[in-house]
């Protein structure tokens, strides 16, 4: 870990914390999800830098050492992709390989829609590309399909989820998220709350250490969760702002990876979309599809060696 260098770079009107291992080789930009940080990519950064690549992992807007505007209106895909384009400019990079997971994956799809000229190839994990529904906003669709207790619907009211998280220790919140292996719909009734039982005892899997948990937990204790939750709260606004891209395809080479126990893979309709031609229709340059057996949502941490090798096997073709 001592190989990883940290800096703060001014991008798009905010200060961004960036972790890097600076080699002269081809650059890879890693985008994390919720509730994560640059740290989620620690294994891949070390593996791929040893293979001769320059590895770059920022804390995205709202996370960790990067500035966190308070308004959800400042977390649109235009803001986030804008941050990343400015980061590439600041680093003097014309193109990068893009590797992303969870919310980072959603941002990566939009990055490829908005600025495909900056992406050499994409390795995306967990979250498939969802074409824009021209007639209904995403939160309305989720309420209709999954109910008001669906976690993304529950994340919408400002401050509500934060209050529930605050009822238990942040360390426990992080453990619950990272160790969850329930592939079913994540629905959280208000009477249960996102914190759940404050006295719960969670045994860490072999791929997560107490040191890892402490890094995430100590950071979120300092920053809170609002920055990350604002990505969910900007979903309907994104829908309005991206109307001009309705029907657009992803036009960069893509490898997609997901665990068969991932709640995203088991969301109703997603398996059929992936395996019956819908995904390929919207992502025509999808070259490789990997379904990892017995693996849950946090795939890049649960299977670090395998994921690193999958990334390398794909990007070394270009």
TrEMBL record:
Keywords: Hydrolase. Its EC number is 3.3.2.10. The keyword Lyase does not apply. Pathway: Secondary metabolite biosynthesis; terpenoid biosynthesis. Pfam families: Abhydrolase_1. It catalyses: (24S)-24,25-epoxycucurbitadienol + H2O = (24R)-24,25-dihydroxycucurbitadienol; an epoxide + H2O = an ethanediol. This is soluble epoxide hydrolase. It comes from Helianthus annuus.
């Amino acid at each position: 870990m001592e190989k990883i260098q940290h800096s703060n770079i001014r991008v798009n009107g905010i200060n961004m914390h960036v972790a890097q291992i600076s080699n002269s080789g081809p650059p890879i930009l890693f985008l994390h999800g919720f509730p994560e940080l640059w740290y989620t990519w620690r294994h891949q950064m070390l593996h791929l830098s040893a293979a001769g690549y320059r590895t770059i992992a920022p804390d995205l807007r709202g996370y960790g050492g990067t500035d966190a505007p308070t308004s959800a209106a400042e977390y649109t895909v235009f803001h986030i992709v804008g941050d990343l384009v400015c980061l590439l400019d600041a680093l003097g990079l014309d193109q990068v390989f893009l590797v992303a997971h969870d919310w980072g994956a959603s941002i990566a799809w939009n990055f490829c829609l908005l600025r495909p000229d900056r992406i050499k190839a994409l390795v995306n994990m967990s979250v498939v590309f969802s074409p824009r529904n021209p007639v209904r906003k995403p939160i309305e669709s989720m309420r209709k399909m999954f109910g008001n207790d669906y976690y993304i619907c529950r994340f919408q009211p400002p401050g509500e989820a934060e209050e529930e998280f605050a009822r238990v220790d942040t360390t426990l919140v992080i453990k619950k998220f990272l160790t969850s292996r329930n592939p079913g719909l994540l629905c959280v009734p208000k009477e249960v709350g996102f914190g759940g039982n404050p006295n719960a005892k969670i045994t860490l899997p072999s791929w997560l250490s107490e040191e890892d948990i402490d890094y995430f937990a100590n950071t979120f204790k300092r920053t809170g969760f609002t920055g990350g939750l604002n990505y969910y709260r900007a979903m309907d606004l994104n829908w309005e702002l991206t109307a001009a891209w309705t029907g657009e395809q992803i036009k960069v080479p893509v490898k997609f990876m997901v665990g068969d126990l991932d709640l995203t893979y088991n969301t109703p309709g997603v398996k059929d979309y992936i395996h019956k031609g819908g995904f390929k229709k919207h992502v025509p340059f999808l070259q490789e599809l990997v379904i990892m057996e017995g693996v849950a949502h946090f795939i890049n941490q649960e299977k670090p060696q395998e994921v690193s090798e999958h990334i390398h096997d794909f990007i070394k073709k270009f």
